[in-house]
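Notes from the 1:1 (GR / supervisor)

We went over the backlog. Supervisor wanted to see one worked example end to end before approving the batch request, so GR pasted a single chain during the call. The sequence is below; no edits were made to it. Supervisor asked that the structure be written out right there so they could see what the output format looks like.
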Amino acid sequence: MTTPLIQQVACVDTIDLDLLDRVRHETLTIPDGWVTEYGEYQSGGWGTLSLLNQTGTATDVTITDCEPVATDLLAAMPATRQLLSDLGLRYMWARIARLEPGSFLWEHRDYGELKSVERHRLHIPLVTSSAAYMVLGGSAVHLSAGRLWRLTPTHAHGACNRYGPPRLHLILDCYSSPELAELANGQHLPDDAVRPLLPLTDALAHQQVEQALTLSWLGYHDAAERHLLQLYFTHELREGQVYDLLHDLHDTLGDTGTAQNWRHRKSILLGTAS
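Structure output shown during the call:
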């Protein structure tokens, strides 16, 4: 596939399956302790632990530019250390991310708060299913296991796990390097990874807002917001449209404060002027 979507996400390599199995086992046997961070970006159900970071403490998960060191968690994961070493990349941060069934990462961009240097993000799926996918450029993209995926997170994107099992990904934030450039030479986007989303027509958008209004009038305010937020994962929306729908919902309800809050959240999540 050579559409603009490949600039946002692509498969760049495969992972040795024996090594991947050992990394998966190490991850599945991690004691509980996943850290919830970036709460405004998610529905809940998304937690991370760091493998490489600034402090060496796995529960420090707010990423920043640094010369990373191995965390206490990575010290107990020899197969994962081998995988990171074999890739030979210039790491900024490395995390394990867990996305529970029924959980969502809302439409957003990343790296906006970091200094302007060239960096890239790689995903290594460890446990996943077809119900777990990312949304980019109006398409649902399933990152299958056994492959190394490049994501350009400065493009608007979101992620979901509609139903089990919990999705586990190894996420590597890397600075540019010859090794990373060599990986990019083989990038491609398998056709079976991509599913176009249905367009959200004006009539359907109006219908969905009416349903959300009904939920709000019945007192189900959180359900009303989630009803609209989840449209991003089922339909092709223009960038930021889901937040405009939430603004309009609360404006119609006469709650101007919450309406303006959604306009502000849109500017934070997408890095745009409010």
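Supervisor's comment: Residues 18 and 86 are 14 Å apart (CA to CA).
Batch request approved.
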